[in-house]
Write a structure and sequence with these properties.
Blueprint: E1 5-9, H1 16-27, E2 36-40, H2 46-56, E3 60-64, H3 81-85, E4 90-93, H4 96-101, H5 106-118, E5 122-127, H6 130-134, E6 145-148, H7 162-176, E7 181-184, H8 192-196, E8 203-206, H9 213-222
Parallel strand pairs: 1-2, 1-8, 2-3, 3-4, 4-5, 5-6, 6-7, 7-8
The structure holds 2-phosphoglycolic acid.
2-phosphoglycolic acid binds next to strand 8.
Length: about 220
């Protein structure tokens, strides 16, 4: 059976009390499903999320939402690979919101991927086109996830069709090899099964719908 990854990207949302509430709800739902769940909160929330997972004995893995392209040193405001590795196993890189709002280039994204891989953090690289896929420099055999997220579908309530997403996932694998490809963009508990049943899609990346613990739980159940 193909492995299903369910990634929550909380983006720039939630305070510590709000995360506590999310876990209170989530813990009560008794998850018994064998899927790889990864929650990616803001940096400030990473220790608290990690602690909550341990306390609740949950099989959730923590991810960060970005990584510095530089090692430790004089880079004010950056969070480096060593600091991330203390708290997270995955990192989202190249999300379209960073490409757009922070002018992240393909070169910068490749540098961040390299930093993560060299330090044993698994990158979840977001792409919205095959052109972006072709610009990635990833050595064969490296552990990495790709999330295909078409721009029109992100936060719009208007997901891509499962058939398009599957075709795109196939094309991505044709370029990069048989690595896991996730679909992201307006995934909810209502449409998640349409995506997760497609042959080439290995999971989903969820923004808005993951902020609500009940809804995220339903997504996991339905995936
Ligand atoms: P969305 O965001 O689920 O809110 O559309 C997905 C993403 O941007 O990762």
């Amino acid at each position: 059976m193909k492995k299903a990854f369910i990634v929550a990207n909380w983006k720039s949302n939630k305070t510590i009390p709000e995360v506590a509430e999310w876990f209170r709800t989530f813990n009560n739902l008794q998850l018994t499903i064998n899927k790889q769940i990864i929650v990616c909160p803001s940096f400030t929330l990473l220790p608290f999320v990690k602690e909550s997972i341990v306390k609740g004995q949950l099989s959730i893995i923590v991810g960060a939402q970005d990584i510095s392209p530089f090692d430790e040193g004089a880079y004010t405001g950056e969070i480096n690979e060593k600091q991330i590795k203390e708290l997270a196993e995955y990192v989202i890189i190249g999300h379209s919101e960073r490409r757009k709002n922070f002018s992240e280039s393909d070169d910068l994204i490749n540098k961040k991927i390299e930093q993560a891989i060299n330090y044993g953090i698994i990158p979840i690289v977001c792409v919205s086109s095959l052109e972006q896929v072709k610009s990635l420099k990833i050595e064969d055999g490296k552990k990495i996830l790709i999330a295909y997220e078409p721009l029109f579908a992100i936060g719009s309530g208007n997901a891509d069709t499962p058939e398009n997403a599957d075709q795109m996932a196939r094309s991505i694998k044709d370029v990069l090899g048989e690595i896991p490809v996730l679909y992201g963009g307006s995934v909810t508990s209502n449409n998640v099964s349409e995506f997760s049943k497609m042959l080439n899609i290995n999971g989903v990346l969820i923004g808005k719908a993951s902020l609500d613990a009940q809804e995220f739980y339903k997504i996991i159940q339905n995936a």
